[in-house]
Design a protein that fits this description.
The structure is a homodimer.
Chain A lengths: L8 H13 L10 E2 L4 E3 H4 L23 H12 L10 E7 L4 H6 L10 E8 L2 E8 L4 E7 L10 H13 L1 H9 L7 E7 L12 E8 L14 E6 L4 E7 L41 E4 L3 E4 L2 E8 L3 E10 L6 E16 L11 E2 L1 H4 L20 E8 L5 E13 L4 E7 L7 E6 L2 E10 L2 E10 L4 E9 L3 E3 L18 E3 L2 E3 L2 E11 L5 E13 L9 E9 L16 E11 L5 E8 L12 H5 L7 E5 L21 H4 L9 E13 L9 E13 L20 E3 L5
Antiparallel strand pairs in A: 1-2, 2-11, 3-4, 4-5, 5-6, 7-8, 8-9, 9-10, 11-12, 12-13, 13-14, 14-15, 15-16, 15-27, 17-18, 18-21, 19-20, 21-22, 22-23, 23-34, 24-26, 25-26, 27-33, 28-29, 28-30, 28-33, 30-31, 31-34, 32-33
Chain lengths: ~700, ~700
């Protein structure tokens, strides 16, 4: 991983100045109408973007992120807090402390909100402090010190410091120069060290590795192999250096630059320039009060988060039969990642990243590129985050919302039996996508939450960006005695693409028609017929098993032992008596095969099963625990769940881990075409019948009329 | 299943008259330009459609389907063929007999083609005859009689006859009337009987069941439960009647009509009328000579097929580095379906459909609805098929081709480490989709082949249409003693959604850089480190295993025993020495759990494994065999493969089965929102590096300018 915090100190004041005086996004016409700060995309018929003046922003919903004003207030309160008089603690996290769920559920617009609170995590004297600040009472109301293992999220200062300490170390410095690298072309990264036993416990450490950026910004493809420093961040010193790669050349830099402006040879055929448009009458969604998204029959609260990137809250869908707006999901977000590289050598063994807790998906988020990351008519949302000195900064355009008309079919039927009437009915599918991308060093993770009018939510993760590669003296495979001795295939001259996995855990606090739910595993079991009973020998039966305790819902997916996975509301039944529910439908995925007691697997023990269900507990948010850096795995989903608590007929949380195995190939060099995988949350007896039966087919008149742009 | 052939006799002459005098699709401007009958979508800037005069069509490619002229010629030749003098055989199939693969591969435009041949399957005297007709020599050149089990595809006449025989049977007729159904509201279907033992062997049989269509065209939701006739088609008599459902009411018809025109209540909120447009500068693909599709770096031959629906042939991709057009897939198509219902009772046990071989996906294909099934600017292709009297007919607009701009990301990277230069690169994804839909009675199967510029092909199957449901006296679940006693959940009053599976087998004749390939199973295996070797205890290794014989490639997917599945060309290596290849990447899928010796599982034994590889054999096209109706499973992929033939370093065929388990729910009533699943064929070391690195980002000027239509 990489030193991935994204703004330098010197930039912050400049940024605030810009915020104050300038719009972030060019306007054609202002799109802000009405007293409720609502952006009407479809009526304004312009780009759906308005100037964002975060300095004056207020919150409108109990789950809204802390505003700039609130962040500044917290910093002031902390500066007056006596334990912090003698020093300036480093802020590793400063974020909204969400009100109790029951209070959020009870909130109504126009009524007083629950008190606004901030949760601050600071490091002081090697200890992690968790502080609650009450913004209404203007004081610290809680202060706990972490006694478990692990440290908070790494800051940019940590990473800079690790690199500086390494480069200030004479031996390390010398080793770099010996590789023939000039300091002006050197790029070094601070990488998370994981936890691998007592020698690194009790202090904060990072690994430092370097790359050569001569003639290319794609330094990832030019590793200085086998040179790793372990840096003690507390004492600011190098504690260990491995330099086992002296004889491994630095891979050449040609053909690694991916920027369009430097491509010297145009694609042989580039016919896609005049591409199908998405421009239209304007999108059909509105964003109220900065964070409430309303589209078709869906509404939900959407916000950026410095740790997990993006949070969808209070997702509700309107029942077209009753007009009722019904709860589906209280909260959904990517709670942790686990990215183990499959190479045990001294420069690779520790690469077992947990990117959300170690670096922060929001902190690493990208400014989305219009028309390329997100189609035209996308709505862009900023993140307001906090630097390690407690000062707010803006991560602009880090989330986009857009309506997708992908050409898929919503439902259809051609009636072939009846000739009169002739029936050929089809309806097209239009969906809403909410997207962000986190560039966690080399890798770019694209997160999509896609909402369909039939009630289905599809959660998709896309992977792009660069491989983490290993230098080698091999320029081709012919000299390799046994390719299996390498930790991955050769993807370019002197470049090995090391085998690795990606696991992304999703925290899915389903609230089907309310918080009181149960989890039902519907097993499909083969039954044999009795002798003489039927010409059939076998068939399947669905057997419903309500999970009583956590152990009943620790699930490893098996193709030959299939099940459905329902979250139901046992108190709400359809008119037929079926319980209202949603089911989790996995797509393609992968499972971790690492030894259960391998340190990285202990830390990421949430990957021991693909599915878990826990009783709602406000402290159980992140599957890898709150303090992930160098954690020993003592505060993970797997540990919480050992208590085997009751999960029937109460507020429960569903956890699903999406996985990828990645054996790299040449097409991944020097940058990877996106691969993706997804899972669905699908209504099951939630609606009385097909909820989109009465949708109108699309006619020619529904479509706008387009002419080519002048440049065509 | 259903009586699913789609045109009455009386229609055919009318149709031919229409063909002769009228365009099938309204024109704005003719789009046919040039001597090569090329449609230039992007230049014409109108709807990409031209009038199709199939009567005068000629073939242009050895794999082109038989033209109307050729079909008529075959019929003439057959009428003069002495064994058929004394009777008129029923044509169960009349289609192109494709030339030997080596001849097709050797064909070049402008040079003489291999001779045109037709393969005709007729039934005569209860025997299936396979006849080759040489259209150049004007005579029958081969005539074989099937000695194995099974019968050819069911014709519309068969289905009509089965229903007529049943309704002419006094006992059956009386049983229908006793249910309170008037004949004017009766809809009866001929269903495939499968094979269940000696009592039905030696003669062609079908099952007949009836439905009530009073006040709704959605008669599927109103079954006359438990009344089944078995009809002997050869002797035209009823051989068995089950009437065990007398006490089961016919489900009510309210809320079952799905036609838009009859919806009495508009959706509570219908905001999606003014929907995002796909109108543009026009699509970027051309269709040459009716069947050759060229888009971006892809080209392939595309045709309709009466049995399998749609065939993609000679799919080739241009290598942007070398300019070379390289072979990827010789042929790909859905070769068979298997849809077993999980209910052993007398009216359900036999519902174990093999829809391609029994009814024909092309024969059942739908006329795609513009703007709903396929976006604007789609190109539509007809099928030219043959009725049971040997006369040609047109299945209009049964395939569409469109460019999809779905808002996904092709690749991206934001560089967070370097501050100078600031790098934020992203490219959007544009793909080409080829689609058809087969309405096999109640179910609609949507087949998509999606081509990406990075070389990936995604094959997707969508399911919509109606459930096959079972009548019951239960109006809600409260009276049901044990829900597991029913063969599925209650989805409406008196309606059980019977549990069932869908399996779709794909024949993928991969020709990676030519026909000589090998199959490599790359297993990901856990390795343990040695004591003291590393702080890591475990990691994964990729182990390549080249399949030598068929048994090495009979694969059941296992999440905890993962592998990659490569088809490589051992004679073509990248500059690094990696063999050129493509890998099959499964998505979500399902596996059949039926007893291996259960008759339906024997017939569909291709579902015993998810993946198979066979040596190319021109007779091995359809995974369930050539004669599927009432087959005993003696000519399936599983049987061919028992020979355990060598598959290394030769022309091989990859077979993949995509599966769904379906436990119905209320949302599936009265018509199902589309569910879909897919798999990918992805280049692996096929290209020297990322093939889309040099694609330009999309800029504002690339997009057309749109205004709302006047009706907005």
């Amino acid at each position: 991983m990489a030193k991935v915090s994204c703004i330098h100190f010197s930039f912050i004041s400049f940024l605030i100045l810009i915020l104050f005086s300038h719009s972030w996004f060019p306007l054609l016409k202002p799109g802000i109408l009405g007293s409720r700060n609502r952006v009407f995309g479809s009526l304004s018929k312009t780009k759906v973007q308005q100037s964002k003046n975060h300095l004056t922003e207020n919150y409108h919903h109990p789950l809204d992120p802390l505003t700039v004003k609130e962040i500044n207030k917290v910093r002031t309160i902390l500066s007056l807090y006596s334990p912090f008089f003698s020093f300036s603690p480093t802020i590793h996290s400063l974020t909204l402390e969400e009100p109790d769920k029951s209070r959020v559920l009870g909130s109504k617009r126009g009524h007083p909100f629950p008190p606004r609170k901030a949760r601050v995590i600071v490091l002081s004297d090697g200890k992690s402090h968790v502080i609650s600040v009450d913004l209404d009472l203007n004081r610290v109301t809680d202060h706990a010190i972490n006694t478990g293992s692990g440290y908070p999220q790494i800051t940019m200062e940590d990473m800079n410091m690790a690199v500086n300490v390494a480069l200030s170390n004479a031996q390390f410095n010398k080793s770099v120069l010996e590789r023939g690298v000039g300091l002006s072309d050197l790029v070094c990264l601070g990488l998370s060290a994981g936890w691998y036993g007592p020698s690194e416990e009790g202090r904060r450490v990072m690994k430092v590795q370097c790359f050569y950026s001569e003639n290319t910004p794609n330094f990832y493809m030019r590793p200085i192999e086998g040179l790793t420093a372990t840096v003690d961040l507390d004492n600011k010193q190098v504690v260990q250096i491995f330099n086992t790669g002296r004889n491994i050349p630095i891979p050449p830099g040609n053909n690694t630059d991916y920027r369009f402006q430097v491509q010297d040879k145009l694609p042989e055929k580039d016919p896609l320039k005049s591409i199908s448009s998405e421009k239209s009458n304007g999108p059909n969604f509105i964003v109220e009060d900065e964070h409430i998204v309303k589209w078709a029959n869906w509404e939900f609260h959407l916000k950026a988060d410095q740790r997990v990137g993006m949070v969808i809250s209070q997702a509700r869908v309107r029942d077209s039969e009753t007009g009722e707006t019904r709860s589906v999901m209280y909260k959904g977000f990517a709670s942790e990642l686990f990215v183990p590289y499959m190479d045990p050598d001294d420069s690779w063994y520790f690469k077992t990243y947990m990117d959300a807790g170690e670096f922060g998906l929001g902190a690493c988020s990208s400014k989305l590129v219009p028309l390329n990351d997100c189609p035209g008519n996308s709505y862009f949302m900023d993140g307001v985050f906090v630097a390690s000195d407690g000062k707010p900064y803006v991560q602009p355009n880090m989330i986009c919302v857009f309506e997708r008309n992908s050409g898929d079919i919503s439902w259809r039927h051609t009636e072939v039996i009846l000739t009169d009437p002739k029936i050929n009915e089809a309806r097209r599918k239009v969906t809403l996508v909410v997207r962000m991308s986190a560039s966690v060093g080399n890798y770019d993770y694209i997160f999509d939450w896609e909402f369909q009018t039939d009630g289905l939510i599809r959660v998709k993760v896309g992977l792009s960006g660069m491989l983490m590669v290993k230098g080698t003296s091999y320029e081709n495979v012919y000299g390799i005695h046994n390719q299996e001795d390498l930790s991955g295939p050769l993807v370019s001259e002197n470049v090995i693409g090391v085998l690795h996995d990606h696991y992304i855990n999703f925290h899915l606090d389903m609230d089907i028609d309310g918080p009181n739910n149960s989890f039902v595993k519907v097993d499909m079991v083969k039954e044999s017929t009795l002798q003489g009973q039927s010409p059939r020998k076998s068939y399947l039966k669905a057997k419903r098993n309500i999970a009583k305790t956590e152990n009943d819902a620790k699930i490893k997916l098996k193709l030959y032992d299939p099940s459905e996975f329902h979250v139901i509301n046992p108190d709400r039944r359809s008119r037929l008596g079926n319980p209202s529910g949603y089911k989790l439908v996995p797509g393609g995925t992968a499972a971790s095969l690492l030894d259960l007691y391998d340190p990285p697997q202990l830390r990421s023990a949430f990957t021991n099963n693909q599915i878990w269900v826990t009783p709602y507990n406000r402290t159980e948010q992140y599957a890898g625990g709150l303090f992930v850096c160098q954690s020993k795995g003592d505060d993970t989903l797997a540990v919480w769940s050992k208590r085997n608590r009751p999960i029937e007929n109460r507020d429960i949380v569903l956890w699903y881990t999406l996985g990828f195995h990645h054996i790299p190939c040449q097409e991944d060099f020097p940058i990877m075409p996106t691969v993706s995988s997804s899972f669905d949350l699908k209504p099951v007896n939630f609606f009385e019948r097909n909820p989109i039966l009465r949708v109108a087919p699309t006619a020619e008149d529904d479509l706008p009329v387009c002419r080519p742009s002048t440049s065509f």
